[in-house]
Structures are given as C-alpha cells and as structure tokens.
Amino acid sequence: MNRLDSDLPAGTYTVSEFAWEMKGVLADAYPAVWVAGEVQRLRSAARGQLYFELIEKGRGDRIQAKLDCVLWADERAVTEAELREAGVELTEGVVLRCCGRPEFWPGGGRLQFTVREVDPVFSLGALEKRRRETLKALEAEGLLERNRKLALPPAPLEIGLITSEGSAAYHDFLDTLVNSGLGFRVYLVHSAVQGAAAEAEIDRAFKLLEAFARGGRRLDAIALIRGGGSRSDLATFDSRRVARAVARSPVPVICGIGHQIDVSIADVVAHTSCKTPTEAAEFLAGRVGEAAYRVEDAGRALARQATDLLRAARQRVSSVPPRLASPSRALLRNRVADCRLAASRARTATERLMAAARQQEEVRRDGLVRSALKPVGRAAERLEAHGRLCEQLSPERTLARGFSVTRRADGGLVRRASDVAAGDELRTRLADGTVASTVDSGTTATKETA
Length: 450
What we know:
The structure is a single chain. By secondary structure, this protein is of the alpha/beta class. It has eleven helices and 13 strands. The protein has a five-stranded mixed beta barrel. The longest helix has 42 residues, at 277-318.
C-alpha cells in the first residue's frame, strides 16, 4: 500500500494513479492520429530507435509548439526505406506528416508521440510549397536576377570555392581544373553542405569571401558545389538564407549542385548554373581557354598586319628613283630599319601579352590590337614623311622650278666661270630637255655690289 493512501481525502489521485489514468485516457481518445511538423533534434539510440521533435514555427521562426516523438527500430527501417524511395531523406528541417498515438510515460512524467507511419507525398509537397514561397520572397526583394547581372571576366582564374573539404565534389572540381593545364588559383572555404549547420556555414563562407574580395584581393568568381543526393539532402540549397547569400554576392557565383535533374533555388539565383561540380569546373576552364584562343588569334592577326606594313614599306623604298642623293638613301634605310625594329618590338610585346593572358590576366582583343599597332603605325608615318621630303629634294623638282645643270664634255659640273675655257663643249640640262653649246671666248667672274 502507498504511504499516501491513508492521508488523501476522498476523490484525490496519487501521482502514479493520475499518470496511469492519463496514459489510459490518451490511448482511448487518440488510438491513431496524424500530426505534421518540422523535424528537429534528430538523434539515434543504441537499440535502433530514432528520437526527434516535431515543431511548428511562427513569425520570425519562433517555435510555437513542439512534440517529442519516437520511431521504434522495427518501424524505422521500413519508414526510412519508403521515404528514400520517394526522394525524401529523414533529416532535420524536413516536414513530416506522421501517423501514431500519443503516450504518457508515468516513470518519466513525459508525453511522447509514437510514430507508426509517415506520409512521403506530404513531405514532397511541403518542400515544394516552401520552395515556391522562397522564390516569391526573393522576387519581391529583387534578388532573382541580381547576381546574374554581374560581369564575369573573360578569363576567371581566381576562384573562391565553397564546399565540404575532401568530399567527392571537392576532388572532382579541383581535378578538372588541374587537368585543364590553366593557371587557376582556388581559395577554399570549408562548409557543411547538408544538415542543420549547413545554411549558417554556407552563409558564413560567402561573407568570408566577400570580405576577402573587398580587402583588395582579386576574386573573379565563387563556385558553390555539392554532389548528388535526395531532395531533402539538397534542401539546404532551397533555403532562403542560402539563396540570399548567393544572390547578394558581389562576385559572380557558379553553382554545381547535385545531379543532372536537380535544380535548386541557389541555381536559380546564381550567375551560372551547372548540373554537377565537374561541369562547373569545365565551364570555368572552357571560358579561360576561349579567352586564350582569342588572344592567340589577335596575335596572329597582329603579326600579319605588321608583315604587310613591312612589305609595303619595302616596296615604297624600292620605288624611290636611284638618282636621289646618297644622304637621302641612307635616311630611308635608317627609317626602314626603325620600322623593322618597331615591328619586332611590337611582336615581342604581343607574345608577352599572350603569355600573361594565359596565366591570369584579363585580355580584351580590340584594346590589345590597338595598343600593339601603335609603334608600327608611328614608324609608317615617319617613313611616309621622309619619303615626301626626298621627293621635295629630288633634282627633277629643282629643275622644274627654273634651275639648270651644266656639264662639260667630260661630265664635270660647271659651278663657276673659271671651270670652262674657250672652245669647251657644254651640255645644259633643263626641266624639259638638254641644250648643247660651245664656249667662244674666255669669261671673267664678276662680283655684284649692293
């Protein structure tokens, strides 16, 4: 007999009596009931049973109510298999609709809901509903297109990487970049990509890389990657917190999440969405490779233009009349040499620019061609100016202005009166022909006076 029995007034329960009464009342009132809520504090026991809480949140994610639940070992294996077949993983954050009965445990003074069955279809619908609500909220905040409008450099070589270090996705991504042979530099920020801590860690990783970029370090893109899994495994990337972190990133985000059929909200708001981590790495390698090809193509075009300029310069030099004075010819040779030297320097500068662009520098084709052609253009202008000067100083132009050239029969020039004597035959060259004459008497030089 309980020691309290003799001291209690009529109609008063002892604690144990009331506890067992409660247990019976609950069993009679709720033999089977469906309850829906979000799974939290999931933990497995040594004997195989699974304990968790079903919670209901209000505004600001404040918990309005919670219910302790247990899934015994014999039902657990069947329930988890049914969920996996439907593409739902029993993890924290997933919304479940459970059928079972409430039980009161007198020894612990605790109410506990024993789960007998779970509705996978409801969980899928809850995930989709949450996804639609998140997309609507992001659109209202103007975040759906924000990251996509950022400019991705033509040669993104400096990459921030957010993923779980050592995972298959991590190795696939890095191996693809290494095998490309390009000069990528990767800055890893480790983060969980599944589970209760994943949202906060991914958000923190984006903030760290944002601070890194704002600190003056170059960062061309951020890769957010994860391998495949069930829909609930990938639920982290449908969360509003992760989506906002992606959309608000000041650096273009490349997503490579899941398998070919998976499209998360992070994919929707990212600058570029790739189906797998490997495809994300291939996208980056392909973009850099294309930029390198454009630089090489511009270099080849530049070399062709320089060669054409040199060929034209040689033709112009060879067409100059051989009667030009030797100083003029020497001047032209010097200018041609300058042109060749300028072309050689331009070709060397182009090769250096191409090598730098393959490693890590952003190169734009039009600017490169204009910059590299400036020395060649200046050399061509100088060559043309000296050609015009030589034409002005040519003997033909001098004769055309009214001057003449007189030579003796032996070819000597007559510069002074004392250069001829009576009887000498002379040839005088004019602009339109030659006049022959004979000196009939000696001449005397005269000096003009003012």
